[in-house]
Amino acid sequence: MSKLYDGIIIGGGPAGLSAAIYLARAKYRVLVIEKEKMGGQITITSEVVNYPGVPETDGRRLTENMRQQAEFFGAEFMMADVKELNPDGDVKKVVTDKGSFETLGIVLATGASPRKIGFEGEIKYQGRGVAYCATCDGEFFTGLDVFVLGGGFAAAEESVFLTKYAKKVTVIVREEDFTCAAAVAEQVKNHPGIEVHYQTEIVEAGGESTLQYAVFRNNETGETWRYEPPTGKSFGIFVFAGYAPATGLFKEFLELNEDGYLVTDMNQKTSKDGIYGAGDICVKNLRQVVTAVSDGAVAATSLEKYLSGMYEKLQLPEREISTPERRKPTDVPKQESAETGGFLTEEMKQQLVPVFERLEKDVVLKFYTDDSPISREVEEFAGEMKDLSPHIRCEVNPEGAEKIELPAICICSGDGTYLGTAFHGVPGGHEFNSFIIAIYNAAGPGQAIDEGLLDRIRNIRREIRIQTVISLSCTMCPELVMAVQRIALENPNVEADIYDMAYFPYLKDKYQIMSVPCMIVNEKDVYFGKKSVEEILGFLEN
User: Fold this and answer.
1) What are the Basic and acidic residues biased-composition ranges (predicted)?
2) What does the pLDDT look like over 199-257, one tens digit per residue?
3) Given this model, what pLDDT does residue 79 score?
4) CA gap 55, 173 in Å, rounded
5) What is the Cα 234 distance to its own chain's centre?
6) Which residues make Cβ contacts (< 8 Å) with residue 179, sequence separation at least 6?
7) What are the structural domains of the chain?
8) Using CA atoms, how far apart are residues 409 and 425, in angstroms rounded to an integer?
9) Up-side HSE of residue 220: CA atoms within 13 Å toward CB?
């Protein structure tokens, strides 16, 4: 019974983290499984000012504090993709791409993803003018006109954010007024850089390689009007039309409403015993962080009562399922209050210790630079990396620079053989973890991967170069980066080059990139959006 969890929480957003805090604090053994990034959708929000007791923060910091709090009480965390649930019986099974796990109860907090509207041209121009994340893609529209579709909280908040970049922001609201809180709507209505059209919707968007026109209809009068930017320019359309609940994993055996949301009772219980729902996947009137954490708390405390009954039914001793040693907040290294002047804080270095202790082979990081400002930062980064592990050797400007687009950090084996993965620029922001995982996959035991996928990777016979264009502020980019680099590290026929868009603007013009992440295969085929290893293999095999 040592491998049996009391509760498995699927989803690492505010709802899942709240449930983890409550369950772990009650001394239950808890595993949180997240597919993409701990923190969920709120991590892309640059400003959070309505969370009680926290006057001002951002989504990433707020959820990172939640994660640490859950970890303090003993919750375990895993980055994995849940493939299947077996909800029947007293002991339930959760199947992931990193193994299968048994549990007495489950909290579903899988969240939701941006919903597409379905207007003509939406899919065709995604990444070439149509976008869904202002934080990730706003900078691509600097000095251009931008349209925001939607009248809810996200549309209102992000339209104000986009005024930092856009020449002008026009908000298209289908209803007679905004549907979010009046205080938020007033910021939009009173902003000098924003124009609002009510009872209006988009009909069509089109152009050649990028957006060149859009057609809108006033539903009150029936009149249509057409927007075209000045000659030679493009423009942006940001879609904030709500979210589609991620319920595909369990739609066959749990009750959903007509819109696909999970039906729960007042205790967050679903239609099956031992399974609870929390957060944006549930039927509810308000989808905010504060309601998500409330759902998580209610789901966890309801599950606690269920677990007590299961312990009695299965005659399990209270301590038979061991609880990980709990840590107090004071036992965890605190964030440095002052800047260290470098890229790596002392806290970051301490967090890397257990990762680098697992390295089994030597790895050489070759730093290639020129006389550009970003190259000087790359050299500084090399100085900070060189002493972190005896298995890591750093070389600055060794032979071979004539074959590399500068600046670059190439990951090589201990004998200096290039392993097919290079970061162009400093892998900071959200990409630092991707960089560390690349080293771990190259020199450590590596992340678990399905044997079938591994066989498909190793069966690639033709030479392939994958250029991945990212922004360090993009929360969707790391999934694509880690998938691409994993393929390259496992097959010598594949090379993966990761580019920070800020320092390689020619790629934007060459491939008409207006959204990240972007993947270019053999300098020809262009794909936008986050992709898994399996999805990328589908493109490469075809």
Assistant:
1) 318-337
2) 999 999 999 888 999 999 999 999 999 999 987 789 999 999 888 899 999 999 999 99
3) 86
4) 29
5) 27
6) 151, 152
7) 4-113+244-330 (3.50.50.60), 130-241 (3.50.50.60), 346-541 (3.40.30.80)
8) 8
9) 8
69-to-40, 75, 79, 331 alpha-carbon distances in Å? 16, 9, 18, 12
Quick: pLDDT tens for 282-315. 998 777 899 999 999 999 999 999 999 999 898 8
Q: The pTM is what? A: 0.69
Percentage of the chain surpassing pLDDT 70? 94
Residue 244's DSSP bridge partners are: 113
Please give the Cα distance from 109 to 277 (Å, whole number): 6
Task: Report how far residue 142's alpha carbon sits from residue 130's, in angstroms, rounded to the nearest whole number.
Answer: 15
Within 357-425, residue ranges assigned H as helices are: 373-385
Coil, helix or strand at residue 447: coil
Alpha helices in 359-469 (DSSP H): 373-385, 432-443, 451-458
Query: Cα separation of 248 and 117, whole Å?
Result: 19
3-state secondary structure of 351: helix
Beta-strand runs (E) in 120-262: 130-131, 145-149, 168-172, 194-197, 200-207, 211-218, 224-227, 236-239, 243-245
